[in-house]
Structure formats: structure tokens, C-alpha cells
Design brief:
LysR family transcriptional regulator; 8-stranded mixed beta sheet; about 40% helix; 3-stranded mixed beta sheet; D-Maltodextrin-Binding Protein, domain 2; LysR_subst-bd; WH_DNA-bd_sf; single chain; transcription regulation
Length: about 300
């Protein structure tokens, strides 16, 4: 079995000598004697059979070989520091990873802003974001497969914090036959055209996003795919307002209006499936998401209270 010739302590001392500009300065910072640092570096060089430092005047300088090895040593000591921090976090109950279920319609930029604020306080917690639709979200909640869930109406028996009232627009390409009609008197004319819908991600899907009276339907996985199809002049689709506002402004898509049903709305909520077992990292991220969403509410319709 191979035994290392050097120790982490020797590499940390070498790093300190370089970072603080000499043995005396490093000794003061590390609260060690200068002679002990000299001995540690000299022994390290002897064990490796290579010169790492050369002293000029009162300052120590890295050799070319020393620069290469010092750079690699920093990765090593940083990894050990992170490992020790992780052990401390686990001892305190800090979660090493969190899984978030995001209903596909929830604005990813708002969630990303929240995660960016969480990052400096995360202690290395890994984040997985799972995009879900309708029953797929609720199944993950019921099966306790996620730590946080942003969903529409949550499953029965789960408490949810309302986030926003999200608006959908009915859109199509400007050259689509429906774009020439103006305001539709009812939904019968829609039923004669191809509709694009978003697939439920549940194991046993029972729903798809959108009005479903059209006999012709294409089902896709997300709204980005739907927008690509719409850009080809094919079909119509209900799409969250924030995903199509730019295309509507530039004329790439047009908004259709049906008398008595020009928009659709859904309430999005934040659910903690295992509230009794919620850890400190999850609690922190939950509070940041709520705070970030409140700050970003101008992007969406303001908070509305709902009874669940």
C-alpha cells in the first residue's frame, strides 16, 4: 500500500509562506515558530526530492516546479476543507442535497434568483430542479420524493403557501387562419384547428395543460417546444404570459381572444411535503423563495389568497 510522502499540514504551511510573503509573516499568522515552518518546508522538499522555494534576501519565492505543485496542493487542501465542512453540516442536520419540483409554468428566472441568494449560505448543498406538470408534481409531493414543490392546486391534505396568480394567453402565428378572425364569438371555431398541449408528467396522467375540445392535438413536453411549432404557423396554444410577451410585442405571435374567455389563470403555490422533517437548508431556501417571489411580484400578478 502506497503511503504519501507529504502531509496536508506541510502543504498548508507552504501555502501560508507564499501567501503571506515569507516565513516570519506566516509564522505570525499561524501562531507557530518560524523555525517550525522552516523545518516543515525543508522536510517537504527533502521528501519530494525537489526544491519548492528559494530565498532571496528576506523573502521566499516559488520555483517553477513549486508553482505547479502549489497550485495542485490548493485543490487538495480545499477538498479536505470542504469534506470537513460537510461532516460538520451533517452533524448539525444540514442537508447535503435538496430536490425542488417546479411546475413548468413557474418563471425559472425568479427561481434562479432565489437559488443565487441561497448559494452563499448553502454550505455546499446540491440542488436538483425537476420540471413537472400537473399530476407529475402532485405525485412527487405525495410520494415524498421532493423537498420543495412549486405547484398548482396541491394534493388534498397538504398545506400550501400561495405564490402568484399566473395568466395564460391564447396565441398563434400571425399567418394562422385564426389570426384573421379577430375576436372569436365562441370556442367552436377553435375546435376546428390543431391545438398544442403540454403533457402531464405523472405516472398515471389524467390531464394536459389547456382547453381540450379540439379534435386535432399535438402533445409536447414543454412550452419551448410548443413555441417552435407555433413559429412555423402550426396550431394554437395556451402559453403563460411571461413566455410570450416578447413574441407578441415583436409580432412573431398574436394573441387570440374568445368572447368571455380571453385569458386563463392558475394559482401557483409552494408546498413542503415533509414539514415535520424539514431540515435547516430546506427552511432557508423556502424563506428565500418566498422573499424573492415577493420582490419579483411585479413580473407577475400580485399575491392572491386562496383556500386549499
Amino acid at each position: 500500500m502506497h503511503r504519501p510522502k507529504s502531509t496536508l499540514e506541510q502543504w498548508r504551511i507552504l501555502q501560508a509562506v507564499v501567501d503571506y510573503g515569507g516565513y516570519a509573516q506566516a509564522a505570525e499568522q499561524l501562531n507557530k515558530s518560524q523555525s517550525s515552518l522552516n523545518h516543515a518546508v525543508a522536510k517537504l522538499q527533502y521528501q519530494l526530492g525537489i526544491q519548492l522555494l528559494e530565498v532571496r534576501g528576506r523573502k521566499a519565492y516559488l520555483t517553477e516546479q513549486g508553482e505547479v505543485l502549489l497550485r495542485r496542493s490548493r485543490h487538495l487542501t480545499q477538498t479536505v476543507n470542504e469534506l470537513e465542512q460537510l461532516a460538520s453540516n451533517l452533524e448539525q442536520g444540514w442537508e447535503p442535497s435538496l430536490v425542488i419540483a417546479r411546475e413548468l409554468v413557474y418563471p425559472m428566472d425568479i427561481l434562479t434568483d432565489a437559488l443565487a441568494k441561497f448559494l452563499p449560505e448553502s454550505r455546499g448543498t446540491r440542488i436538483t430542479v425537476v420540471d413537472t406538470v400537473i399530476n407529475g408534481t402532485n405525485e412527487l409531493i405525495v410520494n415524498n420524493e421532493v423537498d420543495l414543490a412549486i405547484c398548482g392546486m396541491p394534493p388534498k391534505g397538504y398545506i400550501a403557501e400561495p405564490l402568484c396568480d399566473l395568466e395564460f394567453y391564447l396565441v398563434c402565428h400571425p399567418q394562422h387562419p385564426l389570426a384573421e378572425v379577430g375576436e372569436l364569438e365562441d370556442d367552436h371555431e377553435l375546435a376546428q384547428h390543431l391545438q398544442l398541449v403540454i403533457k402531464d408528467t405523472g405516472v398515471n396522467p389524467t390531464q394536459e395543460i389547456g382547453w381540450l375540445k379540439a379534435e386535432q392535438r399535438w402533445t409536447v413536453s414543454n412550452f419551448h417546444e410548443a413555441k417552435v411549432i407555433l413559429s412555423k404557423g402550426i396550431g394554437f396554444c395556451w402559453v403563460p404570459r411571461h413566455l410570450v410577451e416578447d413574441e407578441i410585442k415583436t409580432g412573431k405571435l398574436v394573441r387570440l381572444k374568445v368572447k368571455g374567455a380571453s385569458t386563463r389563470r392558475i394559482v401557483l403555490t409552494l408546498v413542503v411535503p415533509q414539514r415535520d422533517n424539514q431540515g435547516p437548508a430546506c427552511k432557508l431556501l423556502e424563506s428565500i423563495i418566498l422573499e424573492q417571489h415577493a420582490q419579483s411580484s411585479s413580473e407577475l400578478t400580485p399575491y392572491m389568497l386562496v383556500e386549499l
